[in-house]
Amino acid sequence: MVTKNGHKTNIPHLKTSLDRLFSEIDSDVARILDRALAGEDISVEDGTTLLEAEGSPNVNAIALAADDLRRKTVGDVVTYIINRNIFRSKRSCAGRAKPGSWEPPRSASRRVCPPR
C-alpha cells in the first residue's frame, strides 16, 4: 500500500479491513457516495437513502466520505464564536429582577446602573 505522501507501507491488516468495509457497503450507498466524492450534487432522494442506511459498513462509509468532503471544502481549521447575551435593566441593578422581567428605560438617566 502507498500512503498519500508516496511512502510504501506494509500494513496488510488495514488493507484487509478496508477491503472488507468497501465490500459490505450497499450498492446504492456506494453509488451515491462515489458521486458526492466526485463533486456532483446528490438529490433529496439520495440524501434520504443515506439517512436511512443501516449497518456499520454503510454508516462508517458515510462518515468517512463526509469527513473527506468537509476536509476538501473547509480544511481542518476549526473556529468558534462566543456569544454572550448581557441582560441588564434598572431592576437588575437593585437585585430585584426576575429572569425575563426586563423593562425598557424611561429616560436616558436610567440606561446604566448607578455606582455601588
Topology record:
Elements: H1 12-23, H2 27-37, H3 44-51, H4 56-74, H5 90-94
Helix content: 40-55%
Q: Please indicate the percent range of residues in DSSP E strands (runs of 2 or more).
A: under 5%
Q: Helical element count?
A: 5
Give the count of structural domains: 2
From the N-terminal CA to the C-terminal CA, the straight-line distance is 71 Å
What general form does the structure show? extended
Mean pLDDT: 76
Give the low-confidence spans. none
Number of DSSP strand runs: 0
Main sheet: strands, sense, barrel: none
Taken in chain order, the helices and strands follow as: HHHHH
Structural class, from secondary structure content? mainly alpha
Radius of gyration: 27 Å
Summarize the structure.
By secondary structure, the chain is mainly alpha-helical. It has helices at 12-23, 27-37, 44-51, 56-74, 90-94.
How would you sum up this structure, described in words?
The chain has 116 residues and is mainly alpha-helical. It folds into two domains: 12-74, no CATH class; 85-116, no CATH class. The chain contains five helices and no strands. The protein has helices at residues 12-23, 27-37, 44-51, 56-74, 90-94. The longest helix is centred in the middle third of the chain and has 19 residues, at 56-74. The radius of gyration is 27 Å and the shape is extended. The N and C termini lie far apart (71 Å).
What are the salient characteristics of this protein?
116 residues; mainly alpha; 2 domains
